[in-house]
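Methods: example folding runs. The two proteins below were folded one after another, and each record is reproduced exactly as written to the output file, sequence line first and structure-token line second.
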Amino acid sequence: MARRALATPVATGTCPRPVPATPTPVPDLDDSSLLGPTPTPAPDPDAVVDPLLESMTAAAAANLQACWNAADWDAVTAILTPRFLQTAFGIDTPEMAEQAKALAALDLGPLRVETIGPVGIWSDGRGAVDVLYFRGRGNPVQAVAARWFLIAERGVVRFDEEVLLLAPPLGDRVTVGFAIADDLRPMQWNDPTGGQISRSPVTALHGANRGWLPHTFLLEGASGETLGILTLPPWRQSDLVLLDLPAGTYRLHDPATAGSELVLSVTG
């Protein structure tokens, strides 16, 4: 199993100049669809983690936070691999300039990595850490619990994939579910009341992807600003968790699928 230890906060700092990525062996995964079905890695119980890898990973997380908050998207794309960008944000382009442009267009707000756990080694040769981070300008912020897989390239760690985990208890929660399929049916609310919920300290939009294609969902405010994002691989489900979502009307949609749009109404 992956090692368990107390998670630690990520230090604040300044964004360093990006280090050019160098080709290194990576997991043998099919690049034709980075979100397509792939063998699920498992923790390697016999692997010994180099302490240097722990410090490199902590530095990479601190650099990611600093560069994100400095809006240095070129530096951010030097820390995140194309697979991470696709699994976390649905950005599907190998060109770093296009990746940076897509991140800037999302305009998701400041990033704060609250905790990062110890590095574990997995059966595909990659390392991984469990993280909890918050992103947004406040009222609301998105809370994300995830496993970040990572690879090392000549002394530099790059985060290679994001796998969502169940968020820890963050307060009283209201959950509403929605689903999408690939047969051209529109997105649907799963709850009998549809997308009408009461205001709560924690709002969870539980998404289910019931098709063979990946989907990325955006929650937008009245002015079109992006408040949260959720990317689901085929046949997966997870939560888009928001803290302190005010009363109001919001748009939940998949920009890549015509007609995939729902209205969320928060009262109270």
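Second run, written to the same file directly after the first:
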Amino acid sequence: MQIVLDAPKAPMEPAWVSVLRISCVWARGESTQDGAARKLTIELHRRGMYAGVTFVRLLTDPDVGERFYLREYIRAGFMGQCNDFADFLVCLMTSVGIPSKVSQRTHPILASRRETNLPNGNPGRLIVFCTKPLDIAPTGSNPLGGPLDGPQLYPFHQFCLSENTKIWDGMIAFLPEGWKTGDPIKNQTFVFRDAQRTRIQRPVSRALHL
């Protein structure tokens, strides 16, 4: 028997048992939505691994949505990219009854849609954006042997967004100077603008359409 905060919410409605076995253990002891979301985010950041593989397949229009192969991601040991981390965190949270969680991108995937104003005021196109110093999953380590922690250049980033616009991110955590571990919850604004919300549908076969 699994104890949850409320009835599971889409896209985990009904919840997958394989997800409940993880989410109920990681969020054990929490009785509030924010408390459970915090624990799930921190545990994913601690146990997950950022790597050059992904279990997400983009739709014909990549900025409309994506297909997340949930079972394969779990079997791989929570290894993947920002899309995988964000989509899995949505599944974890909604499986225990936390509502209105969506997977969201900072910018469109297609570069042709990243129109912006340059520092000189002229129109231009965003190629990459710079982040504050980050601790990239797993917590406090560089699993691929490269300089993964610290400021990063991304064309886009994907995260989990709550109904009160709080950002929950299991892949990255902010790194104050000299700090290598900590809370991956981002409730502050940095360079996340023009966010693209992905469409969430019900589970289909082995995949989740997100």
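Comment on the second run: The two ends are 28 Å apart (CA to CA).
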